[in-house]
Design goal:
The structure is a single chain. The protein has two domains: 199 residues, Metal-dependent hydrolases (TIM Barrel), CATH 3.20.20; 73 residues, no CATH class. Helices cover 41% and strands 16% of the residues. The protein has a nine-stranded mixed β-sheet with strand order 7-6-5-4-3-2-1-8-9, with helices on both faces. Helix 1 packs across helix 2, helix 7 packs across helix 10 and helix 8 packs antiparallel against helix 9. The model has no long low-confidence stretch (mean pLDDT 95).
Length: 277
């Protein structure tokens, strides 16, 4: 069975750009079935509402839906898979893992060596498994470090898409010989898995970013007014206004900006790896 272990619905939100996930739980489950997945975990930020809703469509689409949450610990993110109650954010890594285990769930370290410092780093060894591949880690080095750490410490390494829209599903897949939630969790814990991943295309990430900015427009403006001073605020608002011209010729500019940004991130990540922070 091909399993998607990390995905977000429209219930996932963030501070600066409010909308992170674009699709409803139903749309995510329906698309997962369409592309041939056998199971999908809905892991919205610090809530299980999306996965509870998605579970209702499990039988209709003939796909296993794993209830989950991406928990923000005091250090970074952990995927809680197979839980029934929400795990509170901002607890320690150990406390979070204990609460997940109390519910019979499994703790998976999300993008542990993420360059934005949203992972738990070497504390991944305290989890049941870790993301050895995350399709959103476009700079590559975070995944390279995660895979190396997973192998060195004999931690089961899963692959995930970290999908924030339905089209992102299926880029990071964990293959397990299982048929339901309990057996999937058991196989991952025992490390009887095969992982396969490919990076998200730049166009897909760009389209997702532009869509996020468009539907979060007023929230982003409010954030800029509250947190940016002149002239940064004026320039940022001018740049933001460009998304209103999409779709159109402006998309060529967004494409160029995406590749420049990706190149910059790769160079930054490589320099950190070679010379330290």
């Amino acid at each position: 069975m091909n399993v998607e272990l990390h995905s977000h619905t429209h219930y996932s939100q963030s501070k600066a750009i409010r909308h992170e996930g674009l699709n409803s739980p139903k749309e995510m489950v329906e698309y997962a079935k369409k592309i041939g997945l056998g199971a999908i975990a809905i892991t919205d930020h610090n809530m299980i509402k999306g996965s509870v809703e998605a579970k209702k469509f499990s039988k209709k689409y003939g796909i296993v839906v794993l209830k989950g949450e991406e928990v923000t610990t005091e250090k970074g993110h952990i995927l809680a898979i197979g839980i029934n109650e929400e795990i509170k954010p901002k607890l320690s890594v150990i406390e979070t893992i204990e609460l997940i285990h109390e519910q019979g769930g499994i703790a998976i370290a999300s993008h542990p060596f993420d360059i934005r410092n949203k992972g738990i780093g070497i504390d991944a060894k305290k989890c049941d498994a870790m993301e050895a591949f995350n399709a959103m880690n476009l700079e590559r080095i975070a995944n390279w470090n995660a895979k190396k750490f997973s192998q060195k410490n004999s931690i089961p390494g899963v692959a995930t898409s970290d999908a924030h829209c339905k089209e992102m599903l299926g880029y990071g897949i964990t293959r397990v010989n299982a048929c339901d939630e309990d057996s999937i969790i058991k196989e991952i814990k025992k490390g009887r898995i095969k992982s396969k991943g490919r990076y998200l295309p730049a166009k897909l990430v760009t389209d997702w970013t532009v869509t996020r900015l468009k539907i979060s427009y007023s929230d982003v403006i409010d954030y800029m007014n509250e947190n940016y001073s002149w002239p940064k605020r004026t320039v940022a608002k001018k740049m933001l206004s460009l998304v209103e011209q999409s779709p159109g010729n402006i998309d060529y500019l967004f494409k160029v900006m995406a590749y420049i940004s990706m190149g910059g991130v790769i160079i930054y990540s490589a320099s950190r790896e070679l010379f330290g922070d």
